[in-house]
Amino acid sequence: MAASDRFRLVVKGQQTHGARPWRGVDPIVAASDIVMSAQTIVSRRTDVSRLPVVVTFGVVKGGIRYNIIPDEVELIGTIRTFDEGMRAATFADLKNVATHVAAAHGATVEAHIPDERGNPVLVNDPALVARMRPSLERAAGTGKVIDAQLTMGAEDFAYYAKEVPSMFFFVGATPAGQDPTKAPANHSPKFFLDESALKLGTRAMLQVALDYLGGAPAP
User: Fold this and answer.
1) 56 CB contacts (<8 Å, ≥6 apart)?
2) Which of 6, 44, 140, 153 is deepest in the core (most CB within 10 A)?
């Protein structure tokens, strides 16, 4: 699972009446241009043939009234990476884009990148996975354990995995009859959990723990 970092950009302009935009500096237009220009960080500046990178804006906040151009606009988002070098380059590119695009509009930007350190990359220990996978298969059933692909989601379990050999696994919870690839995801208001997955998850955790403590050999 990817490393996750949060960024915050504050685009500063000059307030003016909406009927007289030439008397101020519009941070809404500048912020909009920053959002659009930042899309080229991944599409044109990142070697995604190596590993994927995501730059997402989740919050655009500014203005108090329909006919007033505000002083500032706040942009908040997340960066997801799998490589420390690519992570640093993405931060630098975002700050560069934000600074120069804002300047082109006569605005300035305060770039808090990263605003706070996020979760590191989550990497399972290969030897531990090889040893404990049979336990998961006993709990879930033949053919029910699959290898997950890289996911841009993040997980603070990664801090454990940095300290000791670790194994993180998902438990499928899509209701019967739904296609897991099309079912609403966990950040959707339509997300629905099939609670029978709780039994499977408990059984899997118990099986792994008992076999590990019992000295299950590597296959």
Assistant:
1) 77, 78, 79, 80
2) 140
Helix pair 126-140, 197-213: axis angle to 10 deg: 130
Q: What's the whole-model pTM score? A: 0.87
Q: Encode pLDDT of 160-197 as tens digits.
A: 999 999 999 999 999 988 998 899 988 899 999 999 99
Residue type, 91: F
CA angle centred on 62, ends 15 and 57, rounded to 5°: 135
Amino acid at 192: F
Q: Dihedral sign, CA of 196, 200, 201, 205?
A: positive
Q: The tokens 């339509």 sit on which residue? A: 190
How crowded is residue 109: how many other Cβ atoms within 10 Å of its Cβ? 24
Q: Are strands 68-69 and 54-62 parallel, antiparallel or unpaired?
A: unpaired
